[in-house]
Design goal:
This protein has 570 residues and is mainly beta. It has four domains: 2-211, Immunoglobulin-like; 218-304, Immunoglobulins (Immunoglobulin-like); 314-410, Immunoglobulin-like, CATH 2.60.40; 417-513, 2-Layer Sandwich (Transcription Regulator spoIIAA). The protein contains four helices and 42 strands. The strands form eleven sheets. Strands 19, 20, 21, 22, 23, 24, 25, 26 and 27 form a nine-stranded mixed beta sheet that branches. Strands 1-11-12-16-15 form a five-stranded antiparallel beta sheet, with no helix packed on it. Helix 1 (441-447) packs parallel to helix 3 (494-506). The chain is flat. It starts with a strand and ends with a strand. The relative contact order is 0.07. Residues 1-17 and 557-570 have low confidence and may be disordered.
Length: 570
């Protein structure tokens, strides 16, 4: 397969030697991905493959049809194009022999696209380079480097550099008839290695382009991160100085900052090291002997933070009898010597009031007014900052005994809930609004709360009302959330929501907001942070786990595992 790069080729636009309207043959290449029975390069230069033979599929024999190069596994098509003109095009592939199943693809070797259809863009210059590529073998290493070199004059010399080593015999690997340079490596190199090519034509003009980057022979593949785990696997890669893999290199050393050295096995250049972590930063370097010299990688730092369940300043106990509620907090090693405890009772959510409430340090007592649920909130304060918070739920049984409510238990009020579900944008006429001028949908719903209460409903369940990106429609649930802390501007403002909830409570109606912090829009800043390795990336999970056990098996908590491919976050 060919790997796509997002580094634009360097086009030296020496157009002074080209007459206006002069044509130049350009060869397009495509290496198949998946099952491909036929390939085409339709574009603005050939009527986009029309007329189509089946649906939007191009018929066999059309001028856009590409030829398959046997034993090399790629398709090619040479097209005469006007110098100085810009063209748009795509690759179409047929998935079956009849040509009735086809896909339209942006050119995998050309990152420049335009429009909503992501049409590939080609700007024809004389001379020019086109589609620089590394061609990968089945094991993910580079087998060939290739690029199109096009000029209205003959190419006379080619030099090229692979991972810092330069050769001047490039003409031996250049097909003048197609304009394609293709070099098969004696020893496969790691994907992403530097490939730089420079050519001259008969007019003395230079063509050059570069992809990849100069790679050190010993380096870590993964990036540093913060984790709660006691051990993580970090990956490295070792090559010869020319970037090729040396199967004879079978061992390396991992050096730990502050002391300690471990032997690690090297398998075809790949290194996997299980690093045991102490709390705080842990820094490692990879060291190996390559081509008779010792090389040491840049450091990687893995920071281990306390697990959320290990960071508590206090742990709670709920007990009691005879309708007397006894709440106790037990200090952990994280509770400093100087602290304050702030207790509060949530009368609105509780089944009834309490009497004789008395708090002293880490304990609180209160008398329940009857059987039911009683909720207390605790803030642990040190040096003027809240260092721990928790909610304690006391369940008072009919006989007056007291126990802590279990996590999986439903609140008592849910058993008598009569729920009215609202898709907010479907509640009434079309609603519009902007951030500067919010809509009035929440105010419209507030005006109908008396009617909802008169029908016998005591609970409203809103589909997400948080700010969405194009995902909220009349019947759409609104789960394309880009800001969990803001009301979607088409519905109104945060003040509108507060007014709605206050009026609902006056009418004895509870309000449930459907909120999904477990997943977010691909355009949410959290996801952008994940892609860029930013501050939130340590808290985003992209691998599945049981919802009630968590990634580490210790229960539901902020997750921190994400996937990488070739060292990049997915």
């Amino acid at each position: 397969m060919l790997k796509r790069f997002f580094l634009l080729p360097i086009l030296l636009l020496a157009l002074s030697g080209s007459a206006a309207g002069q044509q130049m043959d350009i060869t397009f290449r495509y290496v198949p991905s998946g099952v491909v029975e036929n390939a085409f390069v339709p574009g603005s230069f050939n009527s986009w493959g029309q007329p189509y033979a089946s649906g939007s599929c191009i018929g066999a024999g059309h001028e856009s049809q590409m030829s398959f190069v046997r034993f090399e596994n790629y398709w090619t098509k040479t097209v005469p194009l006007d110098v100085g003109q810009q063209y748009t095009y795509k690759i179409q592939v047929h998935r079956n022999t009849s040509g009735s199943q086809c896909d339209w693809l942006s050119d995998p070797l050309n990152p420049v696209t335009t429009g909503s259809n992501n049409d590939s863009v080609l700007e024809v210059a004389d001379p020019m380079t086109f589609q620089p590529a590394e061609e990968l073998s089945s094991d993910g290493l580079v087998r060939y480097f290739s690029v199109g070199l096009f000029s209205t004059q003959d190419i006379t010399s080619i030099s090229f550099t692979i991972n810092g080593l330069t050769r001047t015999d490039g003409m031996d690997y250049f097909d003048a008839s197609s304009g394609v340079f293709r070099f098969q490596l004696d020893r496969e190199v790691r994907a992403g290695a530097q490939f730089l090519i420079e050519a001259q034509d008969a007019g003395g003009r230079t063509l050059s382009t570069e992809i990849g980057e100069l790679q050190p022979p010993v380096e870590w593949v993964d990036e540093g991160l913060t984790t709660v785990k006691e051990a993580v696997t970090i990956r490295g890669f070792i090559t010869r100085l020319d970037g090729s893999v040396d199967p004879a290199i079978t061992g390396a050393a991992v050096l730990r900052e502050g002391g300690g050295e471990s032997f690690v096995h090297v398998d075809n250049g790949n290194v996997e090291f299980i690093a045991s972590l102490s709390e705080g930063p842990n820094t490692f370097r990879l060291e190996a002997e390559v081509d008779g010299q010792t090389f040491t990688s840049d450091p990687i730092t893995i920071t281990r933070r306390l697990h959320p369940q290990d960071a508590y300043a206090v742990t709670p106990t709920v007990r009691g009898s005879g309708f007397e509620i006894l709440l106790d907090l037990k200090a952990t090693a994280n509770l400093p010597a100087d602290y304050d405890i702030s207790w509060s009772f949530d009368e609105e959510l509780s089944s009834g009031p309490v009497a004789n409430q008395s708090a002293q340090g880490l304990s609180l007592t209160a008398t329940a007014s009857g059987p039911g649920e009683y909720y207390f909130d605790v803030d642990v304060v040190a040096s003027g900052e809240v260092i721990d918070q928790l909610r304690m739920a006391a369940l008072v049984e009919e006989d007056g005994s007291v126990r802590e409510m279990e996590y999986a238990e439903n609140a008592e009020w849910t058993k008598g809930a009569v729920v009215y579900e609202i898709f907010p944008l479907k509640f009434g006429p079309t609603s519009t609004g902007t951030v500067g001028t919010p809509g009035n949908r929440l105010r419209q719903i507030t005006d109908e709360l008396d009617y909802i209460a008169d029908m016998g409903f005591n609970t409203i369940w809103f589909m997400p009302i948080m700010r969405n990106l194009n995902g909220m429609t009349g019947l759409g649930a609104g789960y394309n959330i880009i800001d969990f802390k803001r009301v979607d501007e088409r519905l109104g403002s945060e003040d509108d929501l507060r007014a709605l909830v206050e009026r609902a409570h006056e009418l004895g109606i509870r309000v449930i907001l459907d909120m999904t912090p477990s997943h977010a829009s691909p355009d949410h800043p959290w996801v952008s942070s994940l892609k860029e390795g930013g501050a939130f990336s340590n808290y985003i999970q992209t691998t599945s786990s049981a919802h009630n056990r968590g990634q580490d098996g210790r229960g539901a908590n902020l997750s921190e595992i994400w996937q990488t491919f070739n060292g990049e976050n997915l």
